[in-house]
Design goal:
Structural class: alpha/beta
Distance between the termini: 32 Å
Strand content: 15-25%
Number of domains: 3
Shape: globular
Helix content: 25-40%
Amino acid sequence: MQTDFLVIGSGIAGLTYALKVAQRFPEKQVTIITKAAADETNTKYAQGGIAVVNDLEKDSFEKHIEDTLISGDGLCDPEIVEMVIREGPARVQEIIDWGARFDKDPEGEYKLGREGGHSEFRILHHKDITGLEMETALLNAITRAPNIAMIKHCFVIDIITQHHLGYLVTKSTPDITCYGVYVLNAATNAIEKILSRVTLLATGGNGQVYRTTTNPFIATGDGVAMVYRAKGRIENMEFIQFHPTALYEAGKRGQAFLITEAMRGDGGILRNSKGEAFMKRYDAREDLAPRDIVARAIDNEMKISGTEHVYLDCTHMNMEQFRDHFPNIFEKCLSIGIDVEKQMIPVAPAAHYSCGGIKTDQWGKSSIRFLYACGECASTGLHGANRLASNSLLEAMVFAHRCFLDSVESIESAKAFPDIPAWNAMGTSEPKEMILITQSLKELQQVMSDYVGIVRNNVRLQRASKRIDLLFEETEELYQATAVSPQLLELRNMITVGYLIVKGATFRKESRGLHFNTDYPSKSELVENIVL
Protein backbone atom coordinates (compact mmCIF):
# COMPACT_ATOMS: atom_id res chain seq x y z
CA MET A 1 0.00 0.00 0.00
CA GLN A 2 1.19 3.52 -0.77
CA THR A 3 -0.07 6.82 0.59
CA ASP A 4 1.03 10.45 0.58
CA PHE A 5 0.59 11.15 4.28
CA LEU A 6 0.66 8.43 6.93
CA VAL A 7 -0.58 9.26 10.45
CA ILE A 8 0.07 6.72 13.20
CA GLY A 9 -2.33 7.39 16.07
CA SER A 10 -5.85 8.81 16.26
CA GLY A 11 -5.68 11.19 19.22
CA ILE A 12 -5.92 14.96 19.03
CA ALA A 13 -2.41 15.32 17.54
CA GLY A 14 -2.87 12.81 14.74
CA LEU A 15 -6.43 13.80 13.83
CA THR A 16 -5.67 17.54 13.79
CA TYR A 17 -2.72 16.97 11.45
CA ALA A 18 -4.69 14.60 9.21
CA LEU A 19 -7.53 17.08 8.81
CA LYS A 20 -5.19 19.90 7.91
CA VAL A 21 -3.18 18.04 5.27
CA ALA A 22 -6.36 16.52 3.81
CA GLN A 23 -7.92 19.96 3.39
CA ARG A 24 -4.71 21.46 1.98
CA PHE A 25 -4.16 18.58 -0.49
CA PRO A 26 -7.60 17.27 -1.57
CA GLU A 27 -5.96 15.32 -4.39
CA LYS A 28 -3.59 13.42 -2.07
CA GLN A 29 -4.28 10.39 0.10
CA VAL A 30 -4.12 10.62 3.89
CA THR A 31 -4.06 7.35 5.86
CA ILE A 32 -4.55 7.06 9.62
CA ILE A 33 -3.51 3.88 11.42
CA THR A 34 -4.69 3.04 14.92
CA LYS A 35 -4.04 -0.19 16.79
CA ALA A 36 -7.42 -0.17 18.56
CA ALA A 37 -10.75 1.61 18.03
CA ALA A 38 -10.46 5.11 16.56
CA ASP A 39 -11.41 6.87 19.81
CA GLU A 40 -9.32 4.74 22.20
CA THR A 41 -6.57 7.27 22.86
CA ASN A 42 -5.00 9.23 25.71
CA THR A 43 -6.96 12.25 24.44
CA LYS A 44 -10.22 10.49 25.29
CA TYR A 45 -9.27 10.26 28.98
CA ALA A 46 -8.10 13.87 29.40
CA GLN A 47 -10.53 15.29 31.97
CA GLY A 48 -9.37 18.71 33.10
CA GLY A 49 -9.23 20.78 29.94
CA ILE A 50 -6.98 22.88 27.77
CA ALA A 51 -4.91 25.80 29.07
CA VAL A 52 -5.10 28.87 26.86
CA VAL A 53 -5.07 32.63 27.37
CA ASN A 54 -8.49 33.81 26.21
CA ASP A 55 -9.15 36.93 28.31
CA LEU A 56 -6.31 39.46 27.99
CA GLU A 57 -7.97 41.76 30.54
CA LYS A 58 -7.68 39.20 33.35
CA ASP A 59 -4.82 37.07 32.05
CA SER A 60 -1.78 37.46 29.80
CA PHE A 61 0.54 35.42 27.60
CA GLU A 62 3.40 36.47 29.86
CA LYS A 63 1.72 34.92 32.93
CA HIS A 64 1.05 31.64 31.14
CA ILE A 65 4.63 31.58 29.84
CA GLU A 66 6.00 32.21 33.34
CA ASP A 67 3.80 29.49 34.87
CA THR A 68 5.04 27.00 32.23
CA LEU A 69 8.69 27.90 32.77
CA ILE A 70 8.39 27.61 36.56
CA SER A 71 6.75 24.20 36.26
CA GLY A 72 9.41 23.01 33.77
CA ASP A 73 12.11 23.69 36.38
CA GLY A 74 14.80 25.12 34.10
CA LEU A 75 14.58 22.67 31.19
CA CYS A 76 11.88 24.26 29.03
CA ASP A 77 12.96 25.85 25.75
CA PRO A 78 11.79 29.48 26.30
CA GLU A 79 11.30 30.08 22.57
CA ILE A 80 9.09 26.99 22.24
CA VAL A 81 7.09 27.97 25.33
CA GLU A 82 6.36 31.44 24.01
CA MET A 83 5.54 30.07 20.55
CA VAL A 84 3.04 27.49 21.82
CA ILE A 85 1.27 29.84 24.21
CA ARG A 86 0.96 32.71 21.73
CA GLU A 87 -0.20 30.44 18.90
CA GLY A 88 -2.60 28.54 21.17
CA PRO A 89 -5.74 30.71 20.91
CA ALA A 90 -5.90 30.33 17.12
CA ARG A 91 -5.61 26.55 17.37
CA VAL A 92 -8.32 26.37 20.05
CA GLN A 93 -10.63 28.43 17.87
CA GLU A 94 -10.09 25.91 15.05
CA ILE A 95 -11.30 22.99 17.13
CA ILE A 96 -14.28 25.05 18.26
CA ASP A 97 -15.04 25.66 14.58
CA TRP A 98 -14.80 21.89 14.03
CA GLY A 99 -17.50 21.40 16.64
CA ALA A 100 -15.90 21.12 20.09
CA ARG A 101 -18.02 22.65 22.85
CA PHE A 102 -16.57 24.15 26.01
CA ASP A 103 -18.68 25.01 29.05
CA LYS A 104 -20.18 28.50 29.23
CA ASP A 105 -21.92 30.46 31.97
CA PRO A 106 -25.52 31.80 31.62
CA GLU A 107 -24.15 34.98 30.02
CA GLY A 108 -22.48 32.96 27.27
CA GLU A 109 -18.92 33.48 28.53
CA TYR A 110 -16.57 30.52 28.80
CA LYS A 111 -16.22 29.03 32.28
CA LEU A 112 -12.54 28.99 33.13
CA GLY A 113 -10.95 26.54 35.55
CA ARG A 114 -7.69 26.72 37.44
CA GLU A 115 -5.27 23.89 38.14
CA GLY A 116 -1.98 23.38 39.97
CA GLY A 117 0.83 25.69 38.87
CA HIS A 118 -1.47 28.19 37.14
CA SER A 119 -1.59 31.77 38.42
CA GLU A 120 -4.94 32.51 36.73
CA PHE A 121 -8.20 30.83 35.76
CA ARG A 122 -7.55 29.87 32.12
CA ILE A 123 -8.62 26.24 31.62
CA LEU A 124 -11.34 25.67 29.02
CA HIS A 125 -13.25 22.48 29.73
CA HIS A 126 -16.29 20.41 28.84
CA LYS A 127 -17.49 19.16 32.23
CA ASP A 128 -14.94 16.48 33.23
CA ILE A 129 -14.68 14.86 29.78
CA THR A 130 -12.89 17.58 27.81
CA GLY A 131 -10.66 15.16 25.90
CA LEU A 132 -13.60 13.02 24.80
CA GLU A 133 -15.46 16.11 23.57
CA MET A 134 -12.46 17.23 21.48
CA GLU A 135 -11.81 13.70 20.18
CA THR A 136 -15.44 13.33 19.11
CA ALA A 137 -15.43 16.67 17.27
CA LEU A 138 -12.29 15.70 15.36
CA LEU A 139 -13.56 12.21 14.46
CA ASN A 140 -16.78 13.72 13.14
CA ALA A 141 -14.78 16.14 10.99
CA ILE A 142 -12.60 13.26 9.72
CA THR A 143 -15.68 11.45 8.37
CA ARG A 144 -16.41 14.46 6.17
CA ALA A 145 -12.98 14.34 4.48
CA PRO A 146 -13.18 12.02 1.44
CA ASN A 147 -9.41 11.63 1.05
CA ILE A 148 -8.80 10.32 4.60
CA ALA A 149 -8.76 6.57 5.18
CA MET A 150 -8.86 5.18 8.72
CA ILE A 151 -7.36 1.72 9.28
CA LYS A 152 -8.30 0.35 12.72
CA HIS A 153 -6.79 -2.56 14.65
CA CYS A 154 -3.55 -2.32 12.71
CA PHE A 155 -0.31 -2.56 14.73
CA VAL A 156 2.83 -0.83 13.51
CA ILE A 157 5.90 -3.05 13.97
CA ASP A 158 8.76 -0.86 12.79
CA ILE A 159 9.67 2.25 10.82
CA ILE A 160 11.16 1.42 7.42
CA THR A 161 14.56 3.05 6.80
CA GLN A 162 17.74 2.29 4.80
CA HIS A 163 18.38 -0.41 7.40
CA HIS A 164 15.74 -2.53 5.70
CA LEU A 165 17.53 -2.06 2.36
CA GLY A 166 20.67 -3.67 3.75
CA TYR A 167 22.60 -0.53 4.71
CA LEU A 168 24.32 0.00 8.06
CA VAL A 169 22.40 2.68 9.98
CA THR A 170 23.79 4.15 13.21
CA LYS A 171 23.05 7.16 15.43
CA SER A 172 25.63 9.12 13.45
CA THR A 173 24.15 8.33 10.03
CA PRO A 174 23.33 11.83 8.71
CA ASP A 175 20.41 11.06 6.37
CA ILE A 176 18.30 8.34 7.99
CA THR A 177 15.08 8.40 5.96
CA CYS A 178 11.61 7.09 6.75
CA TYR A 179 9.88 5.34 3.84
CA GLY A 180 6.86 4.10 5.78
CA VAL A 181 6.16 1.24 8.19
CA TYR A 182 5.67 -2.49 8.52
CA VAL A 183 2.32 -3.31 10.15
CA LEU A 184 0.54 -6.33 11.58
CA ASN A 185 -3.00 -6.31 10.20
CA ALA A 186 -5.24 -7.81 12.88
CA ALA A 187 -7.99 -8.55 10.37
CA THR A 188 -5.79 -10.79 8.22
CA ASN A 189 -2.97 -11.55 10.70
CA ALA A 190 -0.60 -10.69 7.86
CA ILE A 191 2.43 -8.41 8.01
CA GLU A 192 2.19 -5.73 5.37
CA LYS A 193 4.18 -2.67 4.35
CA ILE A 194 2.68 0.78 4.02
CA LEU A 195 4.89 3.24 2.15
CA SER A 196 4.41 6.95 2.65
CA ARG A 197 6.07 10.14 1.45
CA VAL A 198 5.53 11.80 4.84
CA THR A 199 4.87 10.02 8.17
CA LEU A 200 3.62 11.50 11.44
CA LEU A 201 3.98 9.62 14.73
CA ALA A 202 1.19 10.55 17.15
CA THR A 203 1.35 7.38 19.21
CA GLY A 204 0.68 8.86 22.65
CA GLY A 205 2.24 7.97 25.99
CA ASN A 206 3.77 5.03 27.81
CA GLY A 207 1.96 4.84 31.16
CA GLN A 208 1.43 1.08 30.88
CA VAL A 209 5.12 0.62 31.68
CA TYR A 210 3.98 1.14 35.30
CA ARG A 211 1.74 -1.03 37.46
CA THR A 212 -0.88 1.71 37.89
CA THR A 213 -1.52 4.47 35.37
CA THR A 214 -4.28 6.82 34.24
CA ASN A 215 -3.47 5.86 30.63
CA PRO A 216 -5.52 3.35 28.63
CA PHE A 217 -4.10 -0.11 27.85
CA ILE A 218 -2.87 1.06 24.43
CA ALA A 219 -0.34 3.52 25.97
CA THR A 220 2.72 1.32 25.55
CA GLY A 221 5.29 3.79 24.17
CA ASP A 222 5.28 2.28 20.67
CA GLY A 223 6.39 5.42 18.80
CA VAL A 224 9.33 6.14 21.11
CA ALA A 225 10.53 2.53 20.94
CA MET A 226 10.28 2.39 17.14
CA VAL A 227 12.25 5.62 16.69
CA TYR A 228 14.93 4.44 19.11
CA ARG A 229 15.30 1.17 17.17
CA ALA A 230 15.51 3.21 13.94
CA LYS A 231 18.45 5.16 15.50
CA GLY A 232 16.44 8.36 15.95
CA ARG A 233 16.99 10.76 18.85
CA ILE A 234 15.09 10.37 22.14
CA GLU A 235 15.41 12.78 25.08
CA ASN A 236 14.37 13.42 28.70
CA MET A 237 12.70 10.05 29.26
CA GLU A 238 13.43 10.20 33.00
CA PHE A 239 10.69 12.81 33.45
CA ILE A 240 7.57 10.70 33.99
CA GLN A 241 4.72 12.69 35.50
CA PHE A 242 2.68 10.93 38.15
CA HIS A 243 -0.77 12.44 38.47
CA PRO A 244 -1.23 13.08 42.20
CA THR A 245 -4.85 12.00 42.36
CA ALA A 246 -5.97 8.78 40.70
CA LEU A 247 -8.91 7.02 42.33
CA TYR A 248 -7.60 4.34 44.70
CA GLU A 249 -9.35 0.98 44.35
CA ALA A 250 -7.76 -1.77 46.46
CA GLY A 251 -6.00 -4.45 44.42
CA LYS A 252 -6.60 -2.84 41.05
CA ARG A 253 -3.81 -2.84 38.45
CA GLY A 254 -3.61 -1.23 35.03
CA GLN A 255 -5.73 1.79 34.18
CA ALA A 256 -6.86 3.83 37.18
CA PHE A 257 -9.72 6.32 37.07
CA LEU A 258 -8.39 9.87 36.97
CA ILE A 259 -9.57 12.42 39.54
CA THR A 260 -8.89 15.67 37.72
CA GLU A 261 -6.74 18.40 39.20
CA ALA A 262 -9.59 20.80 38.46
CA MET A 263 -11.30 19.49 41.59
CA ARG A 264 -8.52 21.00 43.69
CA GLY A 265 -8.81 24.12 41.57
CA ASP A 266 -12.45 24.31 42.65
CA GLY A 267 -11.54 23.90 46.33
CA GLY A 268 -10.85 20.22 47.01
CA ILE A 269 -8.42 19.61 49.89
CA LEU A 270 -5.91 16.77 50.23
CA ARG A 271 -5.92 15.09 53.66
CA ASN A 272 -3.84 12.27 55.12
CA SER A 273 -5.06 9.25 57.09
CA LYS A 274 -5.40 11.43 60.20
CA GLY A 275 -7.60 13.91 58.36
CA GLU A 276 -4.88 16.59 58.29
CA ALA A 277 -4.64 19.02 55.38
CA PHE A 278 -0.96 18.30 54.80
CA MET A 279 0.01 20.26 51.66
CA LYS A 280 0.76 23.45 53.62
CA ARG A 281 3.79 21.61 55.03
CA TYR A 282 5.22 21.12 51.54
CA ASP A 283 4.50 24.24 49.49
CA ALA A 284 3.06 27.74 49.95
CA ARG A 285 0.65 27.06 47.07
CA GLU A 286 -0.70 24.12 49.09
CA ASP A 287 -3.13 21.98 47.04
CA LEU A 288 -2.46 24.01 43.90
CA ALA A 289 1.29 23.37 43.79
CA PRO A 290 2.66 21.82 40.56
CA ARG A 291 2.12 18.11 40.09
CA ASP A 292 5.65 16.97 40.89
CA ILE A 293 5.50 18.63 44.31
CA VAL A 294 2.01 17.33 45.13
CA ALA A 295 2.81 13.77 43.98
CA ARG A 296 5.98 13.64 46.13
CA ALA A 297 4.08 15.08 49.11
CA ILE A 298 1.39 12.40 48.81
CA ASP A 299 4.05 9.70 48.38
CA ASN A 300 5.76 10.90 51.56
CA GLU A 301 2.51 11.01 53.56
CA MET A 302 1.71 7.45 52.46
CA LYS A 303 5.15 6.24 53.55
CA ILE A 304 4.91 8.01 56.92
CA SER A 305 1.51 6.48 57.69
CA GLY A 306 2.09 3.13 55.97
CA THR A 307 -1.13 3.54 53.95
CA GLU A 308 -1.74 3.04 50.23
CA HIS A 309 -3.65 6.27 49.67
CA VAL A 310 -4.60 9.68 51.02
CA TYR A 311 -7.93 11.48 50.64
CA LEU A 312 -9.37 14.30 48.55
CA ASP A 313 -11.98 16.11 50.62
CA CYS A 314 -14.78 17.73 48.60
CA THR A 315 -17.51 17.46 51.24
CA HIS A 316 -17.47 21.23 51.89
CA MET A 317 -17.99 22.12 48.23
CA ASN A 318 -21.24 23.22 46.58
CA MET A 319 -22.62 19.84 45.47
CA GLU A 320 -24.89 21.24 42.79
CA GLN A 321 -21.91 22.87 41.11
CA PHE A 322 -19.81 19.76 41.72
CA ARG A 323 -22.28 17.48 39.96
CA ASP A 324 -22.50 19.95 37.06
CA HIS A 325 -18.74 20.27 36.61
CA PHE A 326 -17.70 16.68 37.49
CA PRO A 327 -20.66 14.44 36.65
CA ASN A 328 -18.59 11.42 35.61
CA ILE A 329 -16.38 11.55 38.68
CA PHE A 330 -19.47 11.87 40.89
CA GLU A 331 -21.08 8.82 39.26
CA LYS A 332 -17.87 6.76 39.30
CA CYS A 333 -17.39 7.38 43.03
CA LEU A 334 -21.02 6.53 43.70
CA SER A 335 -20.65 3.28 41.74
CA ILE A 336 -18.00 2.05 44.20
CA GLY A 337 -19.89 3.21 47.28
CA ILE A 338 -18.42 6.70 47.82
CA ASP A 339 -20.88 9.57 48.28
CA VAL A 340 -18.72 12.61 47.56
CA GLU A 341 -21.14 14.82 49.50
CA LYS A 342 -20.46 12.88 52.72
CA GLN A 343 -17.23 10.94 52.18
CA MET A 344 -13.71 11.80 51.14
CA ILE A 345 -12.30 10.23 47.94
CA PRO A 346 -9.33 7.85 48.37
CA VAL A 347 -6.60 8.87 45.94
CA ALA A 348 -3.01 7.90 45.16
CA PRO A 349 -0.49 8.95 42.48
CA ALA A 350 -0.41 7.04 39.19
CA ALA A 351 1.82 7.28 36.11
CA HIS A 352 0.20 9.87 33.88
CA TYR A 353 2.35 11.61 31.29
CA SER A 354 5.77 11.37 29.65
CA CYS A 355 7.45 14.77 29.33
CA GLY A 356 10.27 13.31 27.23
CA GLY A 357 10.08 11.37 24.00
CA ILE A 358 11.08 11.67 20.35
CA LYS A 359 13.26 14.77 20.03
CA THR A 360 11.79 17.27 17.57
CA ASP A 361 12.51 20.78 16.38
CA GLN A 362 10.07 23.71 16.36
CA TRP A 363 8.29 22.22 13.30
CA GLY A 364 7.81 18.77 14.80
CA LYS A 365 10.56 17.20 12.67
CA SER A 366 12.39 14.25 14.24
CA SER A 367 16.04 13.40 13.53
CA ILE A 368 14.82 11.05 10.77
CA ARG A 369 13.94 12.60 7.40
CA PHE A 370 10.24 12.77 6.46
CA LEU A 371 9.28 11.59 9.95
CA TYR A 372 7.42 13.97 12.27
CA ALA A 373 6.31 13.43 15.86
CA CYS A 374 3.55 15.23 17.73
CA GLY A 375 1.67 14.94 21.02
CA GLU A 376 2.82 13.00 24.05
CA CYS A 377 5.27 10.79 22.13
CA ALA A 378 7.30 13.90 21.20
CA SER A 379 9.75 15.98 23.21
CA THR A 380 9.29 19.49 21.84
CA GLY A 381 10.89 21.60 24.58
CA LEU A 382 7.58 22.86 25.99
CA HIS A 383 7.35 20.79 29.18
CA GLY A 384 10.94 20.63 30.39
CA ALA A 385 11.26 18.66 33.62
CA ASN A 386 7.56 18.82 34.51
CA ARG A 387 4.46 19.54 32.40
CA LEU A 388 2.15 22.32 33.55
CA ALA A 389 -1.41 21.01 33.94
CA SER A 390 -3.58 21.17 30.79
CA ASN A 391 -0.72 22.22 28.51
CA SER A 392 -0.68 18.85 26.72
CA LEU A 393 -3.78 19.29 24.54
CA LEU A 394 -2.56 22.78 23.67
CA GLU A 395 0.87 21.47 22.64
CA ALA A 396 -0.69 18.74 20.51
CA MET A 397 -2.78 21.18 18.49
CA VAL A 398 -0.05 23.79 18.04
CA PHE A 399 2.53 21.24 16.90
CA ALA A 400 0.05 19.39 14.68
CA HIS A 401 -0.41 22.70 12.87
CA ARG A 402 3.35 23.26 12.66
CA CYS A 403 3.94 19.71 11.36
CA PHE A 404 1.31 20.44 8.73
CA LEU A 405 2.99 23.70 7.67
CA ASP A 406 6.35 21.99 7.26
CA SER A 407 4.80 19.01 5.47
CA VAL A 408 3.64 21.33 2.71
CA GLU A 409 7.31 21.84 1.90
CA SER A 410 8.64 18.33 2.56
CA ILE A 411 5.99 16.49 0.51
CA GLU A 412 7.34 18.18 -2.60
CA SER A 413 10.91 17.03 -1.93
CA ALA A 414 10.04 13.41 -1.11
CA LYS A 415 11.56 11.09 -3.72
CA ALA A 416 10.19 7.93 -5.30
CA PHE A 417 10.05 4.90 -3.03
CA PRO A 418 12.93 2.45 -3.22
CA ASP A 419 12.23 -1.26 -3.61
CA ILE A 420 11.30 -2.16 -0.03
CA PRO A 421 11.51 -5.88 0.76
CA ALA A 422 8.58 -7.74 2.27
CA TRP A 423 8.72 -8.61 5.98
CA ASN A 424 10.83 -11.72 6.59
CA ALA A 425 9.09 -14.12 8.99
CA MET A 426 11.10 -17.20 7.97
CA GLY A 427 12.03 -19.55 10.79
CA THR A 428 9.40 -18.36 13.27
CA SER A 429 6.53 -20.28 14.83
CA GLU A 430 3.45 -19.50 16.88
CA PRO A 431 4.20 -18.89 20.59
CA LYS A 432 3.38 -21.99 22.62
CA GLU A 433 2.85 -20.23 25.96
CA MET A 434 1.42 -16.73 26.35
CA ILE A 435 2.61 -16.75 29.98
CA LEU A 436 6.10 -15.98 28.66
CA ILE A 437 4.72 -12.63 27.50
CA THR A 438 2.22 -11.85 30.28
CA GLN A 439 4.60 -12.69 33.11
CA SER A 440 7.40 -10.59 31.62
CA LEU A 441 4.99 -7.66 31.38
CA LYS A 442 4.06 -8.01 35.07
CA GLU A 443 7.74 -8.17 36.00
CA LEU A 444 8.50 -5.01 33.99
CA GLN A 445 5.64 -3.07 35.57
CA GLN A 446 6.66 -4.23 39.04
CA VAL A 447 10.30 -3.22 38.50
CA MET A 448 9.39 0.20 37.11
CA SER A 449 6.88 0.94 39.87
CA ASP A 450 9.10 -0.20 42.74
CA TYR A 451 12.44 1.13 41.55
CA VAL A 452 11.78 3.95 39.06
CA GLY A 453 8.71 5.66 40.53
CA ILE A 454 8.15 9.07 42.09
CA VAL A 455 11.27 8.84 44.29
CA ARG A 456 14.42 7.03 43.10
CA ASN A 457 17.97 6.28 44.23
CA ASN A 458 21.08 4.81 42.65
CA VAL A 459 20.67 1.31 44.10
CA ARG A 460 17.08 1.05 42.84
CA LEU A 461 18.11 2.27 39.39
CA GLN A 462 20.94 -0.27 39.22
CA ARG A 463 18.56 -3.08 40.16
CA ALA A 464 16.03 -1.90 37.59
CA SER A 465 18.72 -1.78 34.90
CA LYS A 466 19.86 -5.37 35.55
CA ARG A 467 16.33 -6.76 35.55
CA ILE A 468 15.33 -4.88 32.40
CA ASP A 469 18.46 -6.14 30.63
CA LEU A 470 17.40 -9.71 31.43
CA LEU A 471 13.83 -9.07 30.28
CA PHE A 472 15.19 -7.58 27.06
CA GLU A 473 17.34 -10.65 26.34
CA GLU A 474 14.48 -13.07 27.01
CA THR A 475 12.00 -11.08 24.94
CA GLU A 476 14.38 -10.67 21.98
CA GLU A 477 14.91 -14.43 21.93
CA LEU A 478 11.13 -14.89 21.86
CA TYR A 479 10.76 -12.20 19.16
CA GLN A 480 13.34 -13.89 16.92
CA ALA A 481 11.85 -17.36 17.33
CA THR A 482 8.09 -16.78 17.21
CA ALA A 483 5.54 -15.09 14.99
CA VAL A 484 4.78 -11.53 16.04
CA SER A 485 1.61 -10.69 17.94
CA PRO A 486 0.29 -7.39 19.36
CA GLN A 487 1.07 -8.62 22.88
CA LEU A 488 4.68 -9.47 22.02
CA LEU A 489 5.18 -6.22 20.11
CA GLU A 490 3.84 -4.14 22.99
CA LEU A 491 6.01 -5.98 25.51
CA ARG A 492 9.07 -5.39 23.35
CA ASN A 493 8.25 -1.69 23.05
CA MET A 494 7.59 -1.29 26.78
CA ILE A 495 10.89 -2.94 27.69
CA THR A 496 12.66 -0.47 25.39
CA VAL A 497 10.83 2.45 27.00
CA GLY A 498 11.62 1.16 30.49
CA TYR A 499 15.29 0.93 29.51
CA LEU A 500 15.25 4.53 28.24
CA ILE A 501 13.59 5.84 31.41
CA VAL A 502 16.16 4.07 33.61
CA LYS A 503 19.06 5.18 31.42
CA GLY A 504 17.95 8.82 31.52
CA ALA A 505 17.39 8.66 35.28
CA THR A 506 20.84 7.14 35.79
CA PHE A 507 22.57 9.86 33.75
CA ARG A 508 20.83 12.71 35.64
CA LYS A 509 22.96 13.22 38.75
CA GLU A 510 20.58 15.69 40.40
CA SER A 511 16.94 16.09 41.42
CA ARG A 512 14.90 18.25 39.10
CA GLY A 513 11.21 18.43 38.30
CA LEU A 514 9.71 14.97 38.06
CA HIS A 515 13.05 13.23 38.66
CA PHE A 516 13.84 13.00 42.38
CA ASN A 517 16.88 10.96 43.41
CA THR A 518 17.53 10.75 47.15
CA ASP A 519 21.27 10.34 46.44
CA TYR A 520 21.25 13.76 44.74
CA PRO A 521 18.47 15.60 46.63
CA SER A 522 19.35 19.09 45.34
CA LYS A 523 19.79 20.65 41.92
CA SER A 524 23.32 20.79 40.63
CA GLU A 525 24.37 23.33 38.07
CA LEU A 526 21.87 22.81 35.28
CA VAL A 527 22.15 19.39 33.65
CA GLU A 528 20.94 19.88 30.10
CA ASN A 529 18.50 17.65 28.24
CA ILE A 530 19.67 14.04 28.17
CA VAL A 531 19.53 12.72 24.60
CA LEU A 532 19.70 8.96 24.03
